[in-house]
Every structure is written in structure tokens, then in C-alpha cells.
Amino acid sequence: xxxxxxxAALELVAGGGAGLSPEKRAVLGASLLLLQRxxxxxxxxxxxxxxxxxxxxxxxxxLGPDRAAPRSRLxxxxxxxxxxxxxxxDEMVAQAEQLKGRFxxxxxxxxxxxxxxxxxxxxxxxDGKKIDRAVGIxxxxxxxxxxxxxxxENRHFEGLSLTEAKKLSSYFHFTKxxxxxxxxxxxxxxxxxSTDFLDSLEHDIPQGSWAVQLEKGGTVVVLRSLLWLGxxxxxxxxxxxYGYIYFGTGEKNLDLPFMx
Length: 260
What we know:
This protein is α+β, with helices and mostly antiparallel strands. It has one domain (3-87, 129-259). The protein is 24% helix and 23% strand. It is built from eight helices and twelve strands. It has helices spanning 6-12, 22-39, 90-97, 118-128, 130-135, 162-165, 185-189, 256-259; strands at 43-51, 56-63, 72-76, 83-84, 137-139, 143-145, 151-153, 171-173, 210-215, 220-225, 231-235, 242-248. The strands form three sheets. The protein has an eight-stranded mixed beta sheet. It has a two-stranded antiparallel ribbon with strand order 5-8.
């Protein structure tokens, strides 16, 4: 969620239990604006909160002009002081995936893990990218890809119609596409390369991993992930208002295939 619209956006996703205390909202709104100024980000998004055993990690993202470029990520323990996270390497992700259980909420806590072979490390790295792939969601048409390859916000985007807003095919993962590359030339011929350059949520596995609901008297469309419990996306049809946030433990719902 964008820092400037955070208070109103949190109200729109509160139906799923996601939220912050009034005190946290106040300090977060102020600190994110200072974060944007100090780091000279073009935009700052509040990614969400990962709840640990001893405390919580609040995560923010800093963006530049090209929205598809790698984002800077920062964390805070109190919503006031922020620390820049180093980019995650393949090795770091593979090591982190070996750890089981919840986060501790203490950056100084030292975990132990066992060594794994290269084949398992590659598999774990792919699994580790899934939560970030799931969290970043945008409506179709909200961003456009220029002929030079950069991704910009679409100034002409005025929101999805209510009919389109209720379809999973109208929402994209805001990360490097995977399924798009597998489409045939005939399928790609029906796509607009300036807007259809990302993977749609309708192809997510397992099928049924998203719940789509109308809330606030049918004025807001809310998507909730059943695979990553705590992930919520909202869009107000016919407006530019949309966003996503995560409030959870960072653990994948491995029981989902048996629940569907």
C-alpha cells in the first residue's frame, strides 16, 4: 500500500482482521514519508507485517521511476526506525528455506541449519520466491510497459469495471512472469503487450487459492490468499484505489490442497 493512502486503505481491508493500532498507524504514516525523503525514493509502499514469537517485523518498499526494477526493502521493529535489507542472494534464500517454524522477531537471533545439496537448494530458492510473487498484485491496466522495456504507472487508468473487478483474470502478479512465457504464439496474439506483460492470478496453483469477495456494501472488491494467510488485496471499481498488504507469520498454508 502506498504510504500516502495508508490510513484509508487499512480501513478497506479491515474486514479480514488485518490492521494496526491507532498509535502504529500514526507513527507509520509519518515515518514512511520521512523514509521516502531521506532515501529519495519516488514512492514508498508499506508491504506489511510479519509477526514473530517475540516481536513483529514491519516491511516497507522503496520504488524508483521504473516500477519493474528491483525494489529497496527496509524493516522496522517499531514503525519509526528503519533499516535497509541487503538484496537476497540465491544462497541466502536457500539457507533461509531450511529453517522451520516462526520468525523470532529478534534480528540478533542466530538460527542453525543443515547443509543441503545443489539440487535441493535450487528447489528451495524457487519456493522461497513465492510469497513475494503472491504479495505484489496490480489490476490489469494500472501499469504499462514502454517499448524500451521499463514499466510505468498508467496515467489513464481509471479502475476496473465492477464486472471485470470480480474476475481473477483482471489481476496480475507484479513480478517477473513465468506462465506468460509458456503461452503459444496464438494465445499471445490476443494480448496487449503494453498491459498484458505479467502473469494473471487465474493460473495460480492450486486452483481455488484465492477468495474474491465484495465488501463495504458491494463497493470494494477484496482478494484474500488462502495459500499465504494474511495476504489481502483491495480495489475500488471505477477508481484508481487499489493496494495489497500482508499481516501474517510468513508461513505457507501447506494444508490448502486438502482443504479445497
